[in-house]
Amino acid sequence: MKNRPKPYRVITDSEVEKYAEEHSTTESEVVTKLIQGSDEELDYIDMLSGPLVGNLLQILVQLSGAKNCLEIGTFTGYSAIKMAEVIPSGGRIDTIEMNIRYQKIAQENFQKY
C-alpha cells in the first residue's frame, strides 16, 4: 500500500498492532478489490482507514444497532462499505466527500457493492 513518507507519533505498541491485525476478520472480496483499485488509481492511499478501524466501525454499527450512518470524508469508500456490510436490512449510509476525484472513485466502488 502506498503511503506518504511522513513522521507520525506511534501511539500503540507495534507488536500489539501486529497481533490485532493477524487476529482480525479478513477483508471481504469487495473491500479487497476496493483497496487494490485505490492503490492502482491513486498515488497515495494513506487516508484509507484500514482493517483495524474498518472492523471497529463494523462492531460499533452492530453493537449500537444503527440503522443510519453518516460518514464525513469518504475517500474511496472503504469505511462506508465496511459499515454497509453489517448495517441491518433497510439501513442507510450517507457519505460526504468534497474531493471530486475521490467522489467518482467511491461512487464506482459503491456500484460494485
Descriptive key words:
two-stranded parallel ribbon, 5 helices, 113 residues, Rossmann fold, mainly alpha
Chart the SSEs and their pairings.
Layout: H1 14-22, H2 29-41, H3 51-64, E1 68-72, H4 78-84, E2 92-96, H5 100-112
Parallel strand pairs: 1-2
Low-pLDDT residue intervals, each spanning 5 or more residues: none
- Under CATH, the topology can be stated as Rossmann fold
Overall shape? globular
- End-to-end Cα distance: 22 Å
Largest sheet: 2 strands, parallel
> What structural category arises from helix and sheet content?
mainly alpha
Return Rg in Å: 14 Å
Work out the number of β strands. Answer: 2
| Mean of residue pLDDT values | 92
User: Taking strands numbered 1, 2, ... along the chain, how are they ordered across the largest sheet?
Assistant: 1-2
String of helices and strands? HHHEHEH
**β-sheet strand percentage:** 5-15%
Give the CATH superfamily: Vaccinia Virus protein VP39
Number of helices: 5
Q: Judging by the overall fold, what is the CATH architecture?
A: 3-Layer(aba) Sandwich
